[in-house]
Amino acid sequence: MLAFGKKAAQEMSERLATKVNSNIKVATFHSLGTQIIKAVEGSMPSVSPLTTDDKARADWIAEMLIAQWENASAAKRWQKHLTQWRIPGFKAENSMEKQARSEQLAAWIWRHLELLGQRGAGKSELVESIERHGQESARARMKSELSLLWPCFRAYEQHLKANKQIDFNSMIQQATEYVNEGKFVPLWRFIMVDEYQDISPHRLALIEALCQSQDVAEKPTLFAVGDDWQAIYRFAGADVNLTTGFEQRFGACHITELATTYRFNSMIGEVANAFIQQNPNQLKKELTSFKKQKRKAVTLLCQDLIDQELAQLAAQQKAPVTTLLLGRNNNQKPEKLKQWQEKWPQLGLTFMTCHASKGREADFVFVLDVNRGLFPAPDRETGLAACLQARGETFTDAEERRLFYVALTRAKAQVWVCADPEKPSPFVNELIDNDYPVMNKIKRMKPKGK
Q1: 395 and 293 in one domain?
Q2: Smaller CB count within 10 Å for the chain: N or C?
Q3: pLDDT band per the 50, 70, 90 thresholds, residue 449
Q4: Which of 111, 329, 145, 397 is nearest to 237 (CA)?
Q5: Distance between the two ends of the chain, CA-based, in angstroms?
Q6: What pLDDT, in 10s, does the model give residues 43-85?
Q7: Which residues, by range, are in coiled-coil regions (predicted)?
Q8: 306 near 326, Cβ under 8 Å?
Q9: Which pTM was predicted?
């Protein structure tokens, strides 16, 4: 059984040991890669601290950037790029040392190093991929960013090699090569993948290598559990098409639908299920809620009235409950959160981003700042990252729609969608204009000056 994180793997292992038996091995993709490499090489691979230690990573990136900028030709490339396009965290007035220590810049570079590592392609292949990119106007920027980031990636590869270390991407790629070369023979009859909708191409390559191994009498059978409606990690390399196209990819297979949800009630389901299926590319499913009710469970609320709504909710509770406040990003964290937590401890108020809420649940959910320009977030991927990620989808705001679906379905009893009446999100407008079964407390107004 494969899971995408240590916590998920541990929870699954405990659950299986209790309800089935302890003979089922649960691992993350990274621990599976480690196991395969150890079996072939006879020792555990050394994982670079840059992958797990934020300070070590920041120090290395700063040192690498300064070395790059002290090279005249490299410095000229950066200067030329910055005359046409911005780079997150880059400010002209900063000293070289201060600039190299920019957290925003370091995050931008590290994300691209991760995507380049997952892609596993050479520079010439990447240039060809850019030339084929559908957005012709973005190609010049993509090539320019590649000219800046490729030396960074090569420096990273050289650092790993010099220290005889690997990172998580190279670990999975090395393990895949060992399986394809017949150096590792899979020991398992069944390979199960949880949260399959989060799969990326390089992880899938490892799974396919294990399931298609020629050196076993009976090839392992793949059993995947996933929900394309909750595919929200394209920015990290996941590709929803690997889920929606599962049957076409694997041919003879059996698809079983888990048609009942035990979390959210039927009135949340009526809204969320209809909303997500507006995208015709999502797999069609008949999802029913075990908990039935007739009272509307989704409320559209003016953002300024959250205090009032929380006060009423707190007054109605006879026992402690859980309440999630969800933002599209961390900027939506309410300034009054601590005050609210102290005032209404019975509500169990917690803030997190919509992405972080996946897999969580609460009695009540407030989705904050569902406003135009914030949620759905505009697609700002016009540089190299747009080329390195999975191909774009034709349906407008497809991934943002799935993220909103995830936010709605964290609630067991009631969800509030909060917006500014002067600038409601297209999602809020859709819920109102298309007569979804919601309680509307938002009186939309024309923006000032119009």
Answers
A1: yes
A2: C
A3: very low
A4: 111
A5: 57
A6: 999 999 999 999 999 999 999 999 999 999 999 999 999 999 9
A7: none
A8: no
A9: 0.84
